[in-house]
Design brief:
- The protein is mainly alpha-helical.
- It has two domains: 60 residues, no CATH class; 160 residues, no CATH class.
- 50% of the residues lie in helices and 0% in strands.
- The chain contains eleven helices and no strands.
- The protein is elongated, with a radius of gyration of 28 Å.
- It starts with 18 loop residues before the first helix and ends in a 5-residue tail after the last helix.
- 21% of the residues are buried.
Length: 246
């Protein structure tokens, strides 16, 4: 085609006027800046600037293209299972299959409202912070740990509030694991409410998360502590956590 008298010969009809003519003129102006050499065709990698292909550069380019990004650093709590950490990470990025996310991807839903309160569109921030269930669970955790709760409406607000809490680092990590466990149980309650034939019991959510967080934490700490110790005064756990495996 480059050797033909005109690029018009590449088409079965002449270019029309209007938008088609303007686009054709822009294409010709771009082609006018191109100079082809008689050398053979070859592959050239321009990801790193030196023309050398590296698998690492391809992997980095794909990660930047497909992986979600966030201003908040990815957090990892060693006192809870991997599945709970991954769940909290997905929730903070709003990557859970909430009704709002499903509808935005073309899934037909009977209602976009939160299945728990049925007041507003369901997304991760609403489910864990704005919904009455999420707020009540967070308040009970704060009363249990004797810390001041503040109203938050998103994961960014929650991380800001959590960063302001003054606790020993390992005890604070354990408290963060308790919140992760709470979100895990709220999501489980939500799923049972949507899919189970009989409604789940809302009154046992807090007791279940306390029991689950105890089992997960006590089995991931090299120093054992009792169930009564866990219930009555988590603050004193800081003395035992000095011997926990980091």
């Amino acid at each position: 085609m480059w050797g033909a008298p005109s690029f018009d010969d590449s088409f079965r009809r002449q270019v029309r006027d209007g938008v088609e003519r303007n686009q054709w003129s822009e294409l010709l102006s771009l082609l006018g800046t191109i100079s082809l050499s008689p050398s053979s065709d070859r592959y050239f990698c321009d990801l790193n600037g030196d023309g050398v292909f590296r698998v690492k550069d391809i992997r980095s380019a794909l990660d930047e293209l497909f992986l979600p990004s966030s201003d908040v650093a990815t957090r990892w709590v060693k006192f809870v299972p991997i599945k709970v950490n991954i769940f909290a990470w997905r929730a903070s990025l709003d990557r859970l299959p909430t009704r709002g996310n499903l509808i935005s991807r073309g899934v037909t839903m009977d209602s976009p409202l939160c299945p728990i309160c049925e007041l507003t569109l369901e997304d991760s921030s609403h489910l864990f912070f704005s919904c009455d269930l999420g707020k009540s669970i967070s308040q009970r955790i704060c009363r249990w740990w004797n810390i001041q709760w503040e109203e938050v409406s998103s994961f960014v607000d929650w991380y800001t509030w959590f960063s302001s809490i003054r606790l020993p680092s390992k005890l604070k990590a354990m408290l963060e694991g308790v919140f992760y466990t709470a979100w895990w149980h709220i999501w489980s309650f939500r799923n049972r409410l949507v899919f189970d034939s009989s409604p789940p019991r809302r009154s046992v959510i807090f007791d279940d998360l306390v029991a689950a967080s105890f089992n997960w934490c006590v089995n991931r700490c090299s120093s054992s502590f009792s169930w009564d110790f866990w219930l009555k005064n988590p603050y004193l756990l800081s003395l035992l956590l000095l011997f926990c495996v980091s």
